[in-house]
Amino acid sequence: MYAGGESPSSPPDQSESLVTIRRTSFQQREYDRILSEVRYYIDENYGDSSLSLDEFCVSKGHSRRSVQRALHSEGTSWRELLRARRLEAACGLLAGSELPIAVVAKHAGYSHSSHLGRALAEQLQISPVEYRASYRNEGDDNNGSG
């Protein structure tokens, strides 16, 4: 007889493994649901320069820690998702409009145009003016009267 009455061919913690798998599967579904809510919320509200994780948690009834765990499970954070969405919006406006940079920054949720400039410099190593100019030059070498 083996220690604990188990034979060498039977897994020692089979029922415990199934519980862990179920818990992990349930947990992942919950994380996926939270992540979907976070992405939708950011997509709908990124233009608000005071948008915060705490505001999201209160509005959706989630604990801050649960949301952070869900985001961590995807290798991201609230700040990273919000930064990416704002930058995407700003780039779209810079490329597709003649709006002043300060207005683009405000529409994209930056509290000041310098924050937009810093975000573009960090992510793309380019200024808002250079970004816009690159799209103008790409589509048409004749700039006309802007």
Topology of this structure?
Layout: H1 14-45, H2 53-60, H3 64-73, H4 78-96, H5 101-107, H6 113-124, H7 128-139
Structure overview:
The chain has 146 residues and is an all-alpha fold. It has two domains: 18-80; 82-139, Arc Repressor Mutant, subunit A (Orthogonal Bundle). It is 68% helix and 0% strand. It is built from seven helices and no strands. The chain has helices at 14-45, 53-60, 64-73, 78-96, 101-107, 113-124, 128-139. α1 crosses α3 and α5 crosses α6 (113-124). The longest helix is centred in the first third of the chain and has 32 residues, at 14-45. The protein is elongated.
Number of helices: 7
Q: How large, in whole angstroms, is the Cα Rg?
A: 24 Å
Instruction: Tally the structural domains.
Output: 2
Q: Which spans have pLDDT < 50 for at least 5 consecutive residues?
A: 142-146
The rounded distance between the terminal residues' Cα atoms is 88 Å
In N-to-C order, the SSE pattern is HHHHHHH
The helicity comes to 55-70%
The count of DSSP E runs of length 2 or more, i.e. the number of strands, is: 0
What is the mean pLDDT? Answer: 86
- Sheet bearing the most strands, described? none
Structural class: mainly alpha
Strand content: under 5%
**Overall shape:** elongated
